[in-house]
Amino acid sequence: MTRNSDQPAAVKNTVVSIAGWPVQRVFRLLEYPFSKIQKGVGIQGMPWIFLLPNLLFFGIFVVIPLFINFAFSFTGGTELFLSNRVYTGTEQYRFLLECETFGDPITCREDRFWKGLYNTFVFVFFQVSFLVLFSLITALILNREIRGRGFFRAVFFFPVLLSPVVVALIWKWILLRDGILNAFLVSIGMDKILFFVSPEWAMFWAVFVSIWAHMGFYTLILLAGLQAIQPDLYEAAEMDGTSKERVFWRITLPLLWPNLLVVVVLALIKGVQVFDEVFVLTGGGPGTATQFIVQYIYNTGFTEQVQDFGLASAASIVLGVILFVLTMLQLAVTRARDNG
Amino acid sequence: MADPGADTKNLASVVFARRGRKKMHWTDIFSYVYLAFGIFLMFGPVLWLGMSSFKTRAGLLEFPPTFFPLGQIEVQVEGYKKPLLLFDVQMDDGSTKQLAQIRRIGIVSQMVDPKNPSEKFKIPIGQRTKVREFRMAWENYRDPLERFNFLVFLKNSVVVTVVATLVTLLINSMAAYGLSIYEFRGRNAIMLFVIGTLMIPITVIMVPVYLVITNLGMVNSLWAVILPGAATPTGVFLLRQYMLTIPKELIEAARMDNASEWTIFSKVVLPLAMPAIAVLAIFSVMWRWNEFLWPLIVLNRTEVYTLQVGLNAFQGELDVQWHYILAMTVVTLIPVALVFAFLQKFITTGIASSGMK
Lengths: 340, 357
Fold this sequence. Notes:
Chain A has a two-stranded antiparallel sheet with strand order 1-2. Chain A is mainly α. Chain A has 13 helices and 2 strands. Chain A has 2 domains: 2-74, no CATH class; 110-339, MetI-like (MetI-like fold, Orthogonal Bundle), CATH 1.10.3720. Chain B has 15 helices and 8 strands. In chain B, the strands form 2 sheets. In chain B, strands 2, 3, 4, 5, 6 and 7 form a 6-stranded antiparallel β-sheet that branches. Chain B is elongated and about 100 Å long. Chains A and B meet through α1, α2, α4, α5 and α6 of A and α2, α5, α6, α7 and α11 of B.
């Protein structure tokens, strides 16, 4: 009996020790240099030693690039190295942002950027609204006393872990001209629809697929929020014979509200940066119908014949400003949730 | 036989059973309809991918498509070297026969009865239907790995995922240790700095990071993918939150025993922080395996492509070879599916408690 119950633990320990062996070797090798360093800097210097590698990475790959980004956006030309670039002042921003009449992308000097901005706005508007709506419905249902709750949670959650390329290819295969969806349409007597030729349909599926892929994540956060609501509130309501609809509007929704706000802002931040799935699914097309800000930056900086790093940097700083505002919003709503 | 009506009623009472005995509310029915539709919508596409990935190239071109992968049966007929395709044929006298096709000339096909090879027929092609059986086209999986570069892509993806995860775990756990065990001047400033880096996603600094990578001479090497994302603020946070719960007395006691700070870190704190490290490891593996935009920028040669970039390049070609793409999509999906199947609990609690993805 005891032997049986020890066996899995023994197996696990063996696996851990085999996998852990090289790691332990590395740690033992590092012991000597680190004890030398400790002799040098003393205990009060050690936190900095432990922080050093991480700070170096942040410095090299985040902080320095952030400054270079500004430098790039104020220079022109096609050279990658800063020393070869010409200072052009705010020309990149003027090129990017000048419009004859705002609100009409075609009259802007860089209409592709404005089209991307406009597309992103449309995408985010629909994606975030429906994403939050369906996540909320799913979370409410999963919070009920249903059979197989864990299974259903997994059903809605697993697409979150799929890579954007996989998600896009799964759906592209369904939506092709001779795909299964068109086969279904034909079988009920309708005509085939060329989903990737019509701008409206392409945008619809971009929104749909991205909701399909990310809904599970937000459902999970909302579910945690729902489960944090005190059960005695519901019990009291039930004793009073309050209707389910009233319970939802008067108890569930107000108490879930802070979590809902956090979810909305998180979804906004992700939505503004949409690229991967849609890029593989539609390639930004037809034309520029599903081209978003990030793809504009990617195209301008990396795929065009003439790689315009300055313009791409200026555009990414515009994106950075949008994200900064949204992140401030996120901090505010998160703090409100955790304090109230 | 029991009355079928009673069966349905029983089934319904099982499916819709609720704790307590109150009458059904409209939301109960809605919930189950929603969940049933949810299974269809979430699993359906993946199931369809799996089924399609085993179809031959010709099978994929069929419209309307069949659900199962089917292959036409071939028979060996006496007097013919190659195996012949088998058809059901509507004969002129109204009967049906199974015949094998010798060759097709225009709209007429020359056929032979496999049981009686001397008898030959000329049949209009409209009168025959293929005889098919369930058959999986494993060559969809074998060919891309052997003839195309997918084995290389697979290897690159594995290298990136493993090395990046090890680097991430090492430097982030060190930083978390520094920020949780010690009280020192500037600690809050560092914390703010780490929070600050959260606000700057790769989409905002693509161009300058590319410059840095070029300067370091790492374009078209896997290090270009591994290094930029190795330090993650979410990782530092997750580990620090956990390490803060480790009792200070343990560390004090180890110091009394003259243990060096590195020994305390590696022998005392890390083993205790294993649950948090496991969560970060799982997340890191998934982030790296699925990463797309950044590898797309820094990897421009096929021999350094990761699976994601390779798949994308393959589906962007003019003559799209869907039978290979679908199979390779399945291959790309499998590790994540395994991680999910075995470690679902870690992942869902990790997300619910830290809100990271």
